[in-house]
Amino acid sequence: MVKLSVIVPFYNVQQYAPDTLKSLRANARDDFEFILVDDCSKDETPEILERAARELPGAVHLRHETNGGLATARNTGLDAARGEYLTFLDGDDWLAPGYYARLVESIEQLGCDFVRTDHVQCTARARTIHRVPHGRRDVVMAPRDVILPADRSTSVDYAYAWAGIYHRRLADRGLLHFTDGLRTAEDRPWIWRLHREAESFAAVGHLGVFYRRGVASSLTQIGDVRQLDFIRAFDQVVRETAADRDADKLLPKAVRTYCAIISHHLGSIERFEPQVARKLKSLSAAALKRMPQGVLDDALDSMDIQRATRLRRLRRRPVSAEVAA
Fold first, then answer.
1. pLDDT tens-digit profile of 152-195?
2. How far apart, in Å, are the Cα atoms of 89 and each of 78, 210, 226, 252, 276?
């Protein structure tokens, strides 16, 4: 039986894929599989993955005929995965040797649905440790109990799918698939659903994932229309949280986070193409009008003056019926 399935989407990462694959080789085990999903790359990534399919123990090579984005590529990997446990890695990141063995050991010892762990962020030559925003380590808890408070960073704000390991029973319940076609913020509805609907989780302190920031091909560096998918992602978070049995408690957190993300994008609007910047404003204004207005009022009252003023100004902006829908 396959103990662990690692799902790794690749898209135009010829510069980084060799390091990623080398680190997977340093994590290989007879009962691990590495599902390499080429999301229709146009550079030399396909050739690199074809070699890896022959040389990397446990490699399973899949290819999309059309580019679907990270969420869709991860779903392709999930559908092919056979492991008792599952995890993710992005095609431009890398791992410490033996990291996955330690991660599997942790979740087996803890016996919970999923485990979240710290990571190292790498920007050029700088290295920064980022911790799961949850103070209790190696203690199994109910994940919905750590969503709050609304005004502080919590585990649902640490949305990196690759910073953890997940039991197959979550996939069987439909909790590990991503919203198909989301080009950015795909981890946000995913992590919220996981925390609302899974039964148990724990945070551990392993440092083994090296997350590469500042990659030119990453959507975080590209100011095109795909960045605006965060609107769809957070609309889904708010909509699904509003249907939760604890909606009155959890909605303030979802709405406040949505507002903070809108404000963040507006605060760096110069990085967007002009027509995308205009669309960002109109879609964000419409999003504010769709939120539960009483909850939104409270969220704005709780924010600092700069962000609250920016969002209140945007809230007054007229929105066409087409955009509002």
1. 999 999 999 999 999 999 999 999 999 998 999 999 999 999 99
2. 12, 10, 21, 31, 29
Other CB atoms within 10 A of residue 76 CB? 20
In this prediction the pTM is: 0.93
Tell whether the model's pLDDT for residue 216 goes beyond 60. Answer: no
Q: For residues 113 and 175, is the Cβ–Cβ distance under 8 A?
A: no
Give the tokens for residue 282.
């109109």
217 has a pLDDT exceeding 80 = no
Closest-CA residue to 112 (of 165, 159, 162, 157): 165
The answer to whether the CB of 178 falls within 8 A of the CB of 190 is yes
Please identify which residue in the block is written with the tokens 């993710």. Answer: 88
What string of DSSP letters covers 152-216? S--GGG---TTSEEEEHHHHHTT-S---TT--SSTHHHHHHHHHHH-S-EEEE----EEEEE--T
Instruction: Look up residue 137 and give its DSSP letter.
Output: B
Q: What is the pLDDT of residue 253?
A: 98
Task: Write out the two tokens for 142.
Answer: 């109910």
Residue-wise pLDDT for 235-293, tens only, equals: 999 999 999 999 999 999 999 999 999 999 999 999 899 999 999 999 999 999 999 99
**Distance from C-alpha of 170 to C-alpha of 316, rounded to nearest angstrom:** 42
The CA distance from 318 to 47, in Å, is 50
CB contact set of 220 (below 8 Å; sequence gap of 6+): 184, 213
Q: How far apart are CA 169 and CA 157, in angstroms?
A: 23
Is residue 99 within 8 Å of 209, Cβ to Cβ? yes
How do 59-63 and 119-123 pair as beta strands? unpaired
